[in-house]
Structures are given as structure tokens and as C-alpha cells.
Design a protein that fits this description.
Blueprint lengths: L1 H21 L9 E11 L2 E10 L14 E9 L10 E6 L7 E7 L7 E10 L4 E3 L3 E4 L7 E9 L5 E9 L5 E9 L10 E4 L8 E6 L7 E10 L2 E4 L4 E4 L5 E10 L3 E4 L4 E2 L8 E3 L7 E4 L4 E6 L8 H6 L7 E2 L15 E5 L5 E9 L13 E8 L3
Antiparallel strand pairs: 1-2, 2-5, 3-4, 3-6, 6-7, 6-8, 9-10, 10-13, 11-12, 11-14, 14-15, 14-16, 17-26, 18-19, 18-20, 20-21, 21-23, 22-24, 24-25, 25-26
């Protein structure tokens, strides 16, 4: 009996210890940090790109979570397997974005001809720290090529020839080179639009033809070269603007009369022979512009008529939809005075129209109201 009680007592103690352990705090799981990619290396620095696959893994025991990410970034050093305690930390963020996600940073002030080790890390609320696989790179004693943009020659209304001068080659071998450009980024990179020149790099001048451009748009352009030590750019950025097409119908004001067809190539009333681009307020219909024969329109709003460029018209969201001009339904009216409209005619010419004076909605059965005074300018075809 005494043995049985002793055995029962030992079993009870073991159960209590197990129960206490079951409800004890669990060890936090580490976030799943993923690979690091070395994007570019030069004499005293490098660009690395990291990725975190999973920020909030579950703990296998009790299905407890280790919590949100508190911190993530890179850790690097000259010894393999760098850690937060034995390495240099580049903290990227704490924002706990949806996984997976990527981030990129530059490592600077490195020694020449030295091997470095770098990996991603992530730390969560539970105190878990996860590391990604180690990537290595070696700085070199690179001397990079010198690049410059030369003459820019407009070859058409939608393209230009850009001269790239390679002034020196350096010792970082060039695998490809050309120009990169953007209408919005005044320091364009290869992540913007780029054109590669199909030639072997040499101390010489080369020409890149850049197409698909919009007249009236300013572009920023730089030379680039992809080398053994990374991507380099010309020091200076050049800008250029393609000239606008010639004007087909100069600025002209006229009155669009109620329920009549108009040719916007010439800005005049036409007979109903299929050359009309629109009707203004046809009989028994809502007041407004009715596109015809493939002509398209877009309301630009109350903007300065003279400052609207050809490129603005070519990029407008043109459509053959009816444009409501009813004053009776004021909320739906899109043709208030001083409104500018972009259009392309059925002949393929772009133009702009300004509403100068909008006549009142015509009362059925009367001969009054309904006209609209406009000013237009139409460009020639490209």
C-alpha cells in the first residue's frame, strides 16, 4: 500500500510539473528571413537587396504566435555568419508590411579588395531573431569608365538620336551601355525606360535612337553602363523637348449653332456628308457634344487654353462618349464656360476647344437659345 501511495505521489508530482511546463512561456520562433542579393559592388561600397518571406509564423506548441515584426534589415561584416551582436546592422524598418516583401540599401565606406558577408535579419515581438542565407561580395580596386551625353537630334515628331560619349574605359569591364530616360524623373536610372546600344564599348561616340516619344513633352536623359563593378551613369543629366507638330487650323473662334454638324479640322459648319466630327445639341436630345464618325473627346477642365500642349492632347483619355452640356441639369453639366476639351478628329488630327459662352438650354417649340461659342486650335497630323 505504501508503495502504491508513493508511486501515485510521484505520478502526481510529474503531472504537476508537466502542467506547469505546458503553460510556461514558450520560446519565441524566429521570423523567416530570406535571401540577400548583391546588386552592385564598387571600390568602397555595394548595393544589396533583401527579402523577408514570413513575418508572423506560428509556434508549434500551443499554437501561440511570436507576434509582429519589431525590426528588420541587413547585418554585415568581414566574418562569416554575421549577427546583430557581432556585425554591423542596417535597420530598414519596423512597419510590419505584408509578406513577402523586398528592400534595398547601400553599404558604404568599405575597404578596397576585401571580402564581406551580408544577410537579412528580422526580429519579432516574442524576441525571436531570424537570419537569411549569407551572401558574399568582394570590393575591387575599380576605375570606372567616364560617360557623357552629347548632341541630341530630333529625327521625327516622336523620336530623337542621342549621342553617348565614352571618354575613358577604366578597368571595370562594360557588358552593355546606352541611355536611360524619363519624363518625370530628373535623374533617370535603368529602372526607367532605357535603350541599349548594340556595340562593343570603346573610347568613342555612339548614337542611340529613342522612339515612342510624345511631342511637347520634356524628357530627362543620362548615359549608363553596366560594368563588372555595377551600374554607372554620366555625371550630368540632359533634358530635351520634342517640337510640337505644325498647326493645321490656327486659333479660331466661332459659334456652334443648335443642332448642327461641325468639322473641327477646319472649325466650320458642314453639310451632313460624313465629314463632321460632332453635333452640338441635336433635335430632341439632351444639350451637349455628340461625337461623330470616329472623332473622340476628353474634358480637361478649366485650364489655360494656351498652355495646353500637343502632348497633353495625345495623352488625354479620349472617347466617343456624349459630353453633357445641360444647364438645366447643372450637376451633370461638363461644359461650363472656360472649360477646355481635347479632341481628335475623324481625320486623325489632335486639337483643343475652349467653351467661351454657353447658350441657355433651348425650350422646345421656341427659336431661342441653344448656341455655344467656342475657340479651337487643331494640329496637323504627325
Amino acid at each position: 500500500m505504501r508503495k502504491f501511495i508513493s508511486s501515485l505521489f510521484i505520478t502526481a508530482i510529474a503531472f504537476l510539473l508537466y502542467a506547469c511546463d505546458m503553460f510556461a512561456p514558450v520560446d519565441p520562433l524566429a521570423p523567416a528571413a530570406s535571401e540577400t542579393t548583391v546588386v552592385q559592388v564598387w571600390t568602397s561600397g555595394a548595393v544589396v537587396r533583401g527579402k523577408v518571406d514570413n513575418l508572423d509564423p506560428k509556434n508549434d506548441r500551443q499554437e501561440k504566435k511570436s507576434g509582429k515584426i519589431l525590426e528588420y534589415g541587413f547585418v554585415w561584416g568581414t566574418q562569416n555568419q554575421p549577427t546583430l551582436e557581432a556585425g554591423t546592422v542596417i535597420k530598414v524598418g519596423e512597419d510590419n508590411p505584408p509578406a513577402p516583401f523586398e528592400f534595398e540599401r547601400e553599404i558604404s565606406r568599405l575597404a578596397v579588395l576585401t571580402t564581406y558577408y551580408v544577410r537579412t535579419y528580422a526580429k519579432n515581438e516574442g524576441g525571436g531573431v531570424g537570419y537569411g542565407p549569407v551572401a558574399t561580395f568582394k570590393t575591387d580596386d575599380y576605375v570606372f569608365a567616364e560617360l557623357a551625353i552629347g548632341k541630341v537630334t530630333t529625327t521625327s515628331k516622336a523620336s530623337a538620336d542621342i549621342v553617348v560619349n565614352i571618354l575613358s574605359l577604366g578597368n571595370a569591364e562594360i557588358s552593355s551601355f546606352g541611355v536611360c530616360y524619363s519624363p518625370t524623373n530628373n535623374e533617370p536610372t535603368t529602372k526607367d525606360t532605357r535603350v541599349t546600344i548594340n556595340a562593343k564599348a570603346a573610347r568613342a561616340s555612339f548614337t542611340a535612337n529613342v522612339g515612342g516619344l510624345s511631342p511637347g513633352t520634356t524628357y530627362y536623359i543620362r548615359a549608363f553602363a553596366i560594368t563588372l563593378g555595377g551600374i554607372i551613369y554620366s555625371d550630368a543629366t540632359t533634358s530635351f523637348t520634342l517640337g510640337e507638330p505644325s498647326v493645321f487650323t490656327p486659333k479660331k473662334s466661332f459659334t456652334m449653332s443648335y443642332s448642327n454638324p461641325y468639322d473641327l479640322d477646319l472649325g466650320q459648319l458642314v453639310s451632313q456628308n460624313g465629314s463632321d466630327d460632332c453635333w452640338w445639341y441635336p433635335y430632341n436630345e439632351r444639350p451637349g457634344i455628340y461625337p461623330k464618325n470616329g472623332a473622340k473627346f476628353a474634358v480637361l477642365g478649366k485650364v489655360n487654353f494656351d498652355q495646353v500642349k500637343y502632348g497633353d492632347l495625345a495623352r488625354a483619355n479620349l472617347s466617343a462618349d456624349f459630353i453633357n452640356g445641360s444647364y438645366t441639369d447643372a450637376k451633370a453639366n461638363q461644359l461650363e464656360n472656360e472649360t477646355v476639351i481635347a479632341f481628335v478628329t475623324n481625320q486623325g488630327r489632335y486639337g483643343k476647344m475652349r467653351i467661351d459662352a454657353h447658350g441657355e438650354d433651348r425650350t422646345p417649340g421656341t427659336a431661342y437659345g441653344g448656341d455655344m461659342e467656342v475657340t479651337i486650335l487643331t494640329y496637323d497630323k504627325e
